[in-house]
Amino acid sequence: MDASAEVPDGLRHRNDAAAQVEPEVPEKAVGTKADQGSSATSSYKDQMISYSGPGFFGLVMILFLIIGAAKGSDAVCLLVMVFLIFLVFGELIYSRFLANYIFSLSDDEVTPASEPGHEDDPDFCATPCYLLWGHHWTSITGAAPIVGPAMAAYYGWLPGMLWIVFGCLFSGAVHDMGTLVVSARNGGRSIADLSGYLVSWRLRIIFLLINFLCMLVVAKFMELIAKLFILWPQTVLPVNAEIPLAVIMGLVNRAVTQKFGSQKAKIVVMTMSMGFLILLYGLVFAAVKIEEDSGEWVGGKLVNPVFGFKIGEGGDLCRDSVNYNRGNAKLGTEDEYNCGFGAMQFWTFLLCAYAMVAACIPVWVLLQPRDFLNSHQLKVVMAALLLALVIKGPKLDADAIRQDRGTVEDREPIFPNMFTLIACGATSGFHGLVSTGVTSKQLNKMRDARVVGYTAMMGESCLSALVMVVVCSAGTWKTVYAKSMNWTGFLAAGGTLLEELGIDPDPAFSIMCVLVVSFAATTLDSGMRIQRILVGELGKSVEKVSPMGGRLFSNIIFQIVVSAVPSLYIANSRSINAVWSLFGATNQLTACVSLLVVAVYVLRFKKYDLKYVLPFVLPILWLLIMISWALIRVIRFYLLDCDEKGCDWYSTNPIWPTVILSIIIAALVFATYLEIAYYFVSGKYKHDEPISETGKLDICAPCGPGSTIPSLGCC
């Protein structure tokens, strides 16, 4: 009998290798003292390397803490203590506990990118940990961890900071790492696809619908980038220059890796990225200078930019053909009343075309290198803002918890609004879509999942904590947040801080704008690719009913058109505000279902030992409570209180899209409740076979009577 037939496929490569070595040198199967010493030395070196970076970071943070305390700056002390909590508990303790005790990660496992058959697939590419970390970090970061905390600062600094810290450590980072591991062990399948195999085909369909709603946020980022291009045209040159620079870096990295290996490629890529980053900031200063010298200014306002359009009377284009304030004499303008095609439409169409191309080409050409370049940009800006805070030594001028209750507080109280407002900085279902839709297909070694999944989420939460401290210590909190949640206060506050480093006001503000636009663009890239993958996975279900329909859904052109058209339409419609206002709830619902799927996986992987699923139970319950609470408040307001508040149902900024989306999301939440209850109350989980030591699901189990896998989840 063939020995390899007696073990699971995931372990065959190890047995084959052992079979080749043991007959020649049998004593090494047990291990000589020399071998054990060499192995111990190698393990010791690996441990030293893995702890050296966190150790250096910790020393710098302790130094900053001492300086902040000496200056009496509670803002610096608060931020540094948050960073140290992430370092000590998150990086050194909890993430390693999850990797070793819960998921039992091993570098002997084969990742999807290393499996045969994916050589020509544009989504699969084995990537070194340092490069994949930067790509994943910037993909999950986007603009949301800036916008959310900057708006949540309205409630004061304490509630948001507590949610950022504890939400990240015990929910968000656990979610990101768990989804990445489960997907990487099962061919890089999305979390929605895996839910059909682990729970039921009904949950798979529910999850795909939730994911598609969540990914409509791509439309909001199109609109956000277009608005910033119009309001601050100095950002157009440096942001778009990132595209050719990233392509050059991607092509060079590929060529050097194939010819000289990954180690030399790492040196080349790091050197190129540093050079391109310097060039990028040079372009920021150049763009500001060009607009100052060559742009047309009236009354201190740039009315005819070099990198944009002259807008308004006698100009090239109007601002926006979808004028939200149409009919409002105070906010609307006569020249935009009959506008057919505006600057907003130009930029959103251009951004959509770019995203469609970026979503179809191999990830190593543009997506990976651009995200890696942006990761350096974010590190530089975060370090600069932190250094400026240490130099300035400001005090927190915001309330710990807001004392005066304004109209915003009446309509959107801290509970539950803040927990859906700060999503990407604490817990975000979008991250699971990135982990399973993009990152798992590029993982080089399985143990990299801890660094890429858990610590990248902590990096994003560090950004959110920094944003919170910057806006709450700028000395303008009481005026900026007097009546509303104004996230743009971060741009002004950050620009003012950078002036502490000797940067002029206009370039400083441009650097902040370029940061926001660049990260909104990374979400646009990854989001469009994930939407395309989701459409393709939906085709697997369609194929079982209609083979012709399945072939259509497998066509990459069909996938990208179906993904792009709804986002482009929403970006240029009055429904865009509805999508954004409900993104938090949809995002958290996605995270909740993802955590449920991971919990079921771990339960079966650990042979139904309940203690292993405890890290997932509390986050799931908390998210379900907050989501339900938030949706009940939204629906109650629009259906019962809205008419008294004078809501606009149809004309300038209609609320009916928000009402419809709220009801749809509420229905999906209710369906999720029922599916979870049925899975556990019916005892269905008791009939599922435990997962083997390889961590791989028996996805190709046969269909038919008696099968434990439903019809949409079997081969």
UniProtKB/TrEMBL annotation:
It is found in: Cell membrane. It comes from the Eukaryota. Residues 78-272, 345-477, 508-628 form the CstA N-terminal domain. GO terms for biological process: cellular response to starvation. InterPro entries: CstA (IPR051605), CstA_N (IPR003706). Residues 16-40 are annotated as: Disordered. GO terms for cellular component: plasma membrane. The chain crosses the membrane at residues 48-68, 75-94, 161-184, 205-230, 236-256, 268-288, 346-366, 414-439, 451-477, 552-572, 578-603, 612-635, 655-681. It is a multi-pass membrane protein. Keywords: Cell membrane, Membrane, Transmembrane, Transmembrane helix. This is CstA N-terminal domain-containing protein. It comes from Polarella glacialis (Dinoflagellate).
